[in-house]
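Hi everyone, sorry if this is the wrong subforum. Our group has a chain we'd like a structural model of before ordering constructs, and none of us has done structure prediction before. Sequence below.
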Amino acid sequence: MKKSPLTQCMKEMRNGQTQEQLAMELNVSRESVSKYERGHVKVPADISQSLMAKTQNPWFAIAIRNEYTKTGPIRLNGPNFDGHRSAIREKTIEEVKEVLGTLEEFSFAKPLQNISEWERPNVELLAEHIAEAITALEHTLAVLCEEAGLSYNEVWNRHYIELQAKGYVQ
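Answer:
Right subforum, don't worry. Here is the predicted structure as tokens:
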């Protein structure tokens, strides 16, 4: 199995802890932790949940979701990415405005399976803009939680409670 953003994130999450110390906390062997960090073995769901409960690390949540589904945002780290909170804020505003504008221009009046070939590029553009906005929003949430000391897990737990209270989920 090749290395992924998850392997780097796992090493960072130890934050000075040894593999042995983390292994004891997770009730696994040190060798298992080493294999997770090197990308030789996928991190099991129960270990992922334990690590999220322990670290509240939004970057880990993003990385583990991408590792298992090969979808969703990935942590941006390229040469053209500015990770400062103000740059992330500005990029998020730009991406959200762009998706909103594209969404307002596109009509959902007829079933999407019946769109014509000339309408298809508009649907594809909307999908791309949505993905870009989601990536920007995920980075904004991660930076917000990380720098303000907010619990990433609690943000999502409160969101789930609100969805349930509004009758959107059971």
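For your construct planning: The chain is about 65% helix and 0% strand. The mean pLDDT is 94.
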